[in-house]
Every structure is written in C-alpha cells, then in structure tokens.
Amino acid sequence: VYQSKLDFFCKLGYGKQDICKVLENLGQEALEDDVLKELIRMGSKPQALESQAQPSSLKLVARGSCSASPGLKWLGEDESHSSDHLRPIVIDGSNVAMSHGNKEVFSCWGIQLAVDWFRERGHTYIKVFVPLWRKEPPRQDSPIADQHILEELEKQSILVYTPSRKVKGKRVVCYDDRYIVKVAYEKDGVIVSNDHYRDLQNENPEWKWFIEQRLLMYSFVSNRFMPPDDPLGRHGPTLNNFLSKKPVLPEPTWQPCPYGKKCTYGNKCKFYHPERPHQAQLSVADELRAKIKVPLSLRKEEEQRNR
C-alpha cells in the first residue's frame, strides 16, 4: 500500500521526500485526498508547475518590436519570413532561352535575366527546368550561347535538369512541360512561359484552371525581362497581386459626374455627386417599388390589429 501510494504521487510530479514525510505523519492507510491536501499545505508543487514558475531564458518577441537579444527569433519563424507572401516561381527554361535567342539560339543569358528579375522582387523559391541534353556540347542544328550559366544556376540549386537518355543512338527525352506544370501546381506558384500547354490542359481539368490563372507571359526588350503589368487582362489583377499570395485589393473609387450640379438624371445617374452624398443611388423603378411596399406593410398591420 505504501509503495502504490508513493508511485501514484510520484506520477503526479511530487518529490519522494515530501511524500514520505506526509505518509509518516498520516500513516500508510491515509486516504489519497488527505495526502494530497497535506502536500498542498506543505507547499509542495509538482515538477511541471515548478518548471513553469521558473523564468525561462528564451522569450517570445512580437514581430516588428525591438529586442534586447537579436539572436532570439519568433518560434517557428525562419529568415525568409519577409518573402512568405510571394508565390513560388517555376520558369520554363527552354521557352525563355529560345525567346531570348529569337527562336534560333538557346540563349542561357535570357534565363539569367529572368531569374535576376524575380530575385530582385524578393522571391526565394525559383526553379528553372531544362532538358538534360542541353548539357551536351552545342551542335549546328541546336546552338547554345553562354552554356556556363546553366552550371552556375545548377550549383545554386535553381536549375533542374529533366531526365533524358540515348537508346540505340536515339535520344529519349522526358516531357519537361509536365514537370513544370506539376511542380507549379503542387507549390501553388506561377508558371513563367509563353507556351499555353494546351495538351496538358486537356489531360487534367485542375491543371486547365491552374494554367489559365497562373501563367505569366513575358517579353524581352533590349536584354530586359519584362512581364506585363496586367497578366490576366485589363480587368484582371495587377502584376504585384498576381505574384503575391495575399493580394491587396484597391479601394473602390467613384467617378465624379462630368455634369456636376447641372446633371438632370437625378437618381438614374451612375456617377458620383459630392453635393448629395447621402442620397441613395436608386433607379426610378426601384424607387417606385420602395414607395409601394410601405403602404402594403401598413395595411397588413392594420388588418392584424382589427383581427
């Protein structure tokens, strides 16, 4: 009995010395509630509560506040917290390189220009997919310019080669477009390419929506990588909102009426009139409906009262 009670209170976190003292005073046949009351009266605390009461050396610091110890960070926060709001970037290396080389030369410098443009914006996850056979020496039918850039990007873990091999002298190349779309879809990122991937859109309806909404087209102007300011059209999001996970919606602005106080449209006018800010912008038909509803409701109330 003594040993069972000792084990029970040890599991609760109390020290053996305090438990032994209480059992000697109250006796082995004392009830567990009495032993617990005596432990509390003596001031004995479980080890878990004592560890919580001790001041810890690590302190949580709110974001944006100055801390006395700069080495301490918010728990679970890495160094790239400033770029968490930017989407991952997946670049179609073959498409970008051939576009920069006017569809005649595989220009690796075009890939470097695209990578640098996204780096300057703060994107940390950037992947470029290129077929493996582009590592081979250039030939007349497939010229390559600035091939050393591919090695440098591979060392920086930015460039990824899609597999390819030779079977009986013939090159067997895996479909690199499927790698590009699959990785961008899983990462919820953006595809940088001028290709529409129509064959992959027909394969998977989810990929079809993703390609339509997350495809970023571009142009090269005098060795300058330039994506459009409106990637999804004039009425779509801006480039900053397109590349960010948390887009900032613009505040709605009312266009002022060009006629001003001379406007004769009244409530039918679709423009903003600063001289009548509290006037409801209702059409004539809606205004008449609103006036008709009021007497109908009054009639119903009168009928209920009469009943």
Automatic annotation (TrEMBL):
Gene3D superfamilies: 3.40.50.11980. A zinc finger (C3H1-type) spans 251-276. It comes from the Eukaryota. Keywords: Endonuclease, Hydrolase, Magnesium, Metal-binding, Nuclease, Zinc, Zinc-finger. Residues 251-276 form the C3H1-type domain. GO terms for molecular function: hydrolase activity; mRNA binding; RNA endonuclease activity; zinc ion binding. Its cofactor is Mg(2+). Pfam families: RNase_Zc3h12a, UBA_6. GO terms for cellular component: cytoplasmic ribonucleoprotein granule; nucleus. Belongs to the ZC3H12 family. This is Putative ribonuclease ZC3H12D. It comes from Gavia stellata (Red-throated diver). The lineage of its organism: Eukaryota, Metazoa, Chordata, Craniata, Vertebrata.
